[in-house]
Amino acid sequence: MKAVLPALARPLLEPHLPADLDVVWFRKPEEANDGIADADIAWVDMQPGHLVADAIRASGPNLKWVSTIYAGLDAFPLDVLRRRGAIVTNGVGINAYAVAEYAVLGVLAAAKRFDEVIRAHDRHEWLADSPGKIELFETNALIVGYGAIGRAIGQRLEGFGVTVTGVTRSGRDGTITPDAWRARLGDFDWVILAAPSTEETKAMIGAEELAAMKSSAWIVNIARGNMVDDDALLAALTSGGIAGAFLDPTNPEPLPADHPLWSAPNCMITMHLSGRSQTKMFQRAGALFLRNLSAFKAGKPMENVADLNAGY
Length: 312
Known about the structure:
The chain has helices at residues 10-13, 29-36, 50-57, 78-84, 96-112, 114-122, 148-158, 207-212, 230-239, 281-298, and strands at 2-6, 22-26, 41-42, 65-67, 87-89, 140-144, 163-167, 190-193, 218-221, 244-247, 267-269. By secondary structure, it is an alpha/beta fold.
């Protein structure tokens, strides 16, 4: 059995790999592409995302399992994976704590307008009053996408006394379903996007959704940039239709220096750093890979198996 794996993970994985596993450790995209041609197992995460797609398209008929640290599969050629009949295990939960903390950072920064505090600091200006006076206590948050990350956000916000409503496909555990949240947008002070990126989530926040929000509400996006219609968001920010936006991802990435979102009023952009604001990602990913490798070889159920039809 052959696997193509990232050289960065070699110190974590190699001491624990079975002796009968033939491993290609790749450092460059071309090494991943060559190694995957006859591999049974592949962990070929690379940036930018099109390199992952290129590698998977270079795979052969032996490919049985693809492991990734990413929760969303929007960069993956799902048609190729379905055709191969490959199992895909994703990284749900690996960065959940870090991303959830970043989302709460966004809510707190918006509530206290900490961006304005930092700007005053840079001007060496002592503010006589706080630019943000919102208390999180007794506010209401909608979290669109109540999976591992969404639940972690909700748990942390509840600690501040925020009433949290989650959105899931099934409406499980007191959440609401995708057909119900738009009608309730006017109820929320914080609209937080934490859903996986699929065809259904593209531009899910557009002019109608923004118009339905409170003028005092903030949107916090820690999912994917393409979930928000940028033109509609710019119009809402400029007109004061909503109070502001905290955007970790953008579309495109990197955001061009002349993009109008950089200078839009009441908009904070954090360069998709939420998942990188941690030190344990590779350790968790390595441990997950090894558990799944053991299950894969034993023919037992694996963790984080993605639904290739749903896209996550």
